[in-house]
Amino acid sequence: HSACSLSYVSHEIRKGKTKLEGLPATYGLEEECTTLEITCMDPVISLEVVLCYTLFEELDVIKKNVRIRNQNKNQIILTKVLSSCLNLEGMDYDMITLNGSWARERYVERKRIGYGEQGISSIRGESGHQQNPFLAILSSDATEDYGEVYGFNFVYSGNFIAKVQGCQFDNIRVIMGIHPETFRFVLETNQEFQSPEVVMVYSDIGIGGMTRTFHDLYRNHLIRGEYKDKKRPVLINNWEATYFDFNTEKLLNIAREAKKFGIEMLVMDDGWFGKRNSDNGSLGDWVVNEEKIEGGLHYLVSEINKLGMKFGIWFEPEMVSPDSDLYRTHPDWVLEIPGRKAALCRNQYILDLTRTKVRDYVFNSLSNILNSANIEYVKWDMNRQLTDVGSYAHGEYHQGEIYHRYVLGVYDLMERLTKEFPHILLENCSGGGGRFDPGMLYYSPQIWCSDDTDAIERLEIQRGTALVYPLSCIGAHVSDCPNHIVSRTTPFETRGYVALSGTFGYELDITKITEEEKKLIPKQIAQFHKYSDLIRTGDYYRILAGVDCNYDCWQIISKDKTETLITIIQILGRPNVHSKRIRLKGLVKDEMYCDSESGECYSGGALMHAGILVPNLDGDFKGKIYHFIKE
Ligand code: GLA
């Protein structure tokens, strides 16, 4: 057979939401959500399919997934399991997606929906830099603050498809799930297959409403762990400062200088293990290189701790270099189509994480390092897409399961890591933001947003990312200029304002920047301490996005509407332009709000309708922040 026709059998409604074994998923207490499970059956092939919907009481959100059970006495091969399918009346819709590339992730694209099929996908084995597993359908007249919007986000970090079909009856259908092209899953008698879930958000107050619902959902019902609601330490990462060229002394010098200005944690990036002095070796050999880290890791970390700073470390657990002891000992531990040589990418292969033995090796390597010193942060990197996806451990008949089993393997490792080391702050990363998806957010409260740290490029990247994902999870640092990716020089203040609307930190050699720049650091850190709670927990509004491309402006308001922070960045300086009017959003009309800098007070109504006049910021890439507090 290659058919499936389902009929209703029964249904059940209950409070709360069941945990998805082995998969990331939203969660909620019994009083926060209700679940409906509809059991269907195809009697011809004895396949049971349970459609699971969860509604969140406080948010306009439905999550959907499916569970499949083979009740046939023979095996059944699944070739297509989507997680959601929604039909909408009419064709008068636009579609928003987030597209890009390495160092240019999640640019917003809006286009009209037409007949036939249109959509996005990934078959790169990860969600990818190119197309985020997110799609919004909106009435064609919808704006930031007006109109109906349906947002879809796939809680999964592997191959996906999200498709819109405009049909002959002038209606549309939206589907989302694991990409069928790379999927062939064998289900034995009585075995179950659990699909990942799709989160569906509805807003009747425009795109901004959708964004804020996603943020609330993810902050309260997806992100977990000790740092869920906690301020993150201000870190300095040595990647752009030193690349592979560092040793204990260099790191300690950076830390000593950083400490003077209020930085709280040093993160040692790629290059501390095996014989790794460039990107062509040693992945998999998670043993400290004592030629660089003289005195060992314990010594380095205790010296950092003595300064009163925390210490964090970089890993790329999913990979192995051909030039490594691990690969020389276990050449069959990589993903490879048996009989063919796998392709290298960034000089590395992918470990076959579908295998328990391989996962145990990775977990033990990480644990050994993490137990050997007082490590309080881990950056989990993943620097290549999957190719040659085959496994020596599974028979030919099961090779179509590997893409999915790989993702399950990654989740298993992350679950073990976060359980065993609950105090560690985990940050995900994939060549910048190549795996910025809700699946990853279930394990790590923050994700490195992009390898492009240029403040102006980051405006687009962070705006696109924040369309769906909360600011609390967007990894953002102040880096050196000229910028290493685009060679642009921007004011140090502006770099600070942009990083402030993310996790905030530094990624530069602090021993080499100018005295004037150094002097700005304590001011930026004071701003971080002052505004971090507001930025992490508040409501986010886009003020000028797409309205005037010479500016970007966004606003964050505390939930109780007593405090708001506005950031405006002027891209290019222009002659004879005296000011820019910005109208705030979301305030209480009759309350008075006072500007913390000038002390002047205005009603919420005045700030929302007359707005404020931002003076010409005099030059390129200049920024300013405003902070208002209720009188
Ligand atoms: C990726 C990350 C960077 C850095 C390098 C190290 O590109 O995105 O931040 O960690 O790997 O190799």
Detailed description of the structure:
This protein is an alpha+beta fold. The chain is 22% helix and 30% strand. The chain is built from twelve helices and 35 strands. Strands 1, 2, 3, 4, 7, 8, 10, 11, 15 and 16 form a ten-stranded antiparallel sheet that branches. It has a nine-stranded parallel sheet with strand order 25-24-23-22-19-18-17-27-26. Helix 9 links the parallel strand 24 (446-448) and strand 25. The longest helix has 23 residues, at 515-537. The termini are far apart. The mean pLDDT is 97. The structure holds alpha-D-galactopyranose (GLA).
Chain-averaged pLDDT: 97
Radius of gyration: 25 Å
Low-confidence stretches: none
Strand content: 25-35%
| Distinct small molecules bound, one entry per kind | alpha-D-galactopyranose
Backbone structural class = alpha+beta
Tally of helical runs: 12
Biggest pleated-sheet summary: 10 strands, antiparallel
Q: How many E-type strands?
A: 35
**Oligomeric nature of the chains:** single chain
